[in-house]
Specification:
The structure is a homodimer. By secondary structure, the first copy, chain A, is an alpha+beta fold. The first copy, chain A, has a single domain (about 20-105), classed as Winged helix-like DNA-binding domain superfamily/Winged helix DNA-binding domain (Arc Repressor Mutant, subunit A), CATH 1.10.10. Chain A is built from five helices and three strands. Chain A has helices at about 5-25, 30-40, 45-50, 55-70, 90-100; strands at about 45, 70-75, 80-85. The first copy, chain A, has a three-stranded antiparallel β-sheet with strand order 1-3-2. The longest helix of chain A is centred in the first third of the chain and has 24 residues, at about 5-25. The interface between A and B is large, with 61 and 62 residues. Chain A binds a DNA duplex through α4. Chains A, B: Keywords: DNA-binding, Transcription, Transcription regulation.
Chain lengths: ~120, ~120
DNA sequence: CTAACGTATCAGTGGATAATGATATGACAT
DNA sequence: ATGTCATATCATTATCCACTGATACGTTAG
């Protein structure tokens, strides 16, 4: 085993799980729809429910997930709660993914391992 | 509903599923470990098995998934099969994710929705 | 031809999780 | 105080998917 491999393994041990978790956070159509709704502006839960067509408890669940992950932040306003993206780089990450998907090489549909 | 929302919905309908699928492809520790092994160089299945500690059928399964998705490409060499990243931007995406995780705000561990 | 090796496929299994309906919590208005 | 609205939580269910062991396929060596 080379030094390079050792370094890879060391860094992998520490960063693999969080990395996977971040990508999994982004790897659900419902959560992506929610993030999409937040791309342009801050939104209340109701607005997100309307825009995404998802059920309200479902949206709340995913928002909790996204909040715990630190991907969104919230702000109370009376009985409304307004959510927004926690970091610009999240939008960047999504855009980069779209660019990658626009490449001819990357054709995710063909993957039979999961139905997505 | 504003024009902006309509545009969001239209783009979402087309790109949400593939996007989610791409992120899910990246959202598994085993697949990330495999991609990690390929970051620095081309590798045979055996080498990946050794470096990741995963089972051989398991690695083959994930490689098939990654291949179908277009995230890796393969090359036959005798009875060996050597895999490599299909696109530099995949490594970029992973690095960007790591940078995001280095931020204080994004702390994925706290997410209780999935154990990952 | 046959043995040995590298890789891929398959079926079975356990564990994880997204969605739903019911319900709880909290805030505002009258 | 009470009703109403916005949001969050909970339990249930049904589905999905990663892993394993056995095995098949393909290639090289002897």
């Amino acid at each position: 085993m080379t030094l390079q491999n050792i370094q890879d393994d060391l860094s992998a041990a520490d960063t693999l799980e969080p990395r996977a978790k971040l990508f999994r956070g982004l790897g659900d159509p419902s959560r992506l729809a929610i993030l999409d709704a937040l791309l342009s502006d801050e939104r209340s839960v109701q607005e997100i429910v309307t825009q995404t067509g998802l059920g309200q408890p479902n949206v709340s669940n995913h928002l909790r997930c996204l909040l715990d992950c630190g991907l969104v932040s919230r702000r109370n306003e009376g009985r409304f709660v307004r959510y927004r993206l926690a970091d610009r780089r999240i939008a960047d990450l999504i855009r980069d993914a779209d660019q990658l998907l626009a490449s001819t090489a990357v054709g995710v549909d063909a993957c039979r391992s999961y139905t997505g």
